[in-house]
Amino acid sequence: MESDQIWQEIKNTGSLNGRKIHYRDEIDSTNVLAAEFARQGCACGTVVLAATQTHGRGRLGRPWQSPPGKGIYFSLIWHSKLDMSDLSKLTLAAGLGLSRAVEEQTGLPTFLKWPNDLLVNNKKVAGILTENYGDNQGRKLVIVGVGLNVNTSQKELPPDLAAKASSLYISSGQQYPLGGIFDAVIRSIEGSLMEMEAGEFKKILDAWRRKDATLGRELTWVTASRSMITGTSIGIDDQGILRIRDRLGEIHQVMSGDLNLAAT
Ligand code: BTN
């Protein structure tokens, strides 16, 4: 199927390859509607996809700019059987799936910045906001929200993020069909989540480590309580937690907060 036809097919039928897709021309946030569907008991793998979001949400309460028809903004509803303590690993798996799909579709080399940023040429082109909704009959409901800047131009990105944010178009000079990219991304992310559910976290970790944008680099960690720790990334441990070695040799485990990479 031609790629733009894929987008049309989704709009016309509300599904793709047997997957239910709730498409909206405009929405506040796909994560919000996805949480409602999840609570109502929709099938695992259901997606909410929008052409634009008025209140797209990023990590740490930040907004996610979602210019109409320029990027892919969707939320995947996932039923996990993992222990509560392992749910954060799904974010790493989703990031890996996203990175594989983008590479396959564009040929651009991609890297991952813990926990969920997808980087091309050292700039962020996508982010993932994973939200958990507790137990439902022994399953945990997880919303995996993905924002990928595809054909976004520099002027459509927030000016204060000019040095940090990018899109596939800015990185390559090429425009991409949204439908084809979405199809590849959703299949790849779902594949990675299934690997996690099948107990293959070691495989995910090994692949994630090969794409780690921070390893060996100097960075500043702004903790949840706004204190700053500067040091060198020594990568993620076997639980997927990022570690930073500071100048005194102390190792810090990064559980939340924000990371700023020093310029190269
Ligand atoms: C981040 O990097 O801070 C995460 C960004 C996640 C944005 C996506 S866009 C689709 C979904 N709906 C939202 O409101 N947020 C996520």
Strand content: 25-35%
- Average pLDDT value? 93
Number of strands: 13
Secondary-structure-based class equals alpha+beta
* Total helical elements: 6
The rounded distance between the terminal residues' Cα atoms is 42 Å
Shape assignment: globular
Radius of gyration, in angstroms, nearest whole number: 18 Å
Q: Biggest sheet: strands side by side, in what order?
A: 1-2-3-4-8-7-6-5
Q: What is the helical fraction, as a range of percent? A: 25-40%
Low-confidence stretches: none
Bound molecules: biotin
Sheet with the most strands, sense and barrel status: 8 strands, mixed
Secondary-structure element order, as H and E?
HEEHEEHEEEEHHHEEEEE
Walkthrough of the structure:
Helix 1 crosses helix 5 and helix 3 (88-106) runs antiparallel to helix 5. It contains 6 helices and 13 strands. With 264 residues, it is an alpha+beta fold. The chain has an 8-stranded mixed beta sheet, sandwiched between helices.
Topology:
Elements: H1 3-13, E1 15-16, E2 19-24, H2 30-40, E3 47-50, E4 71-80, H3 88-106, E5 111-113, E6 117-120, E7 123-136, E8 139-149, H4 168-172, H5 178-197, H6 201-210, E9 218-222, E10 228-236, E11 242-246, E12 251-254, E13 258-261
Parallel strand pairs: 2-3
Antiparallel strand pairs: 1-2, 3-4, 4-8, 5-6, 6-7, 7-8, 9-10, 9-13, 10-11, 11-12
The structure holds biotin.
Biotin (BTN) binds at residues 29-31, 53, 56-59, 62, 64, 73-75, 116-117, 127-129, 145-147.
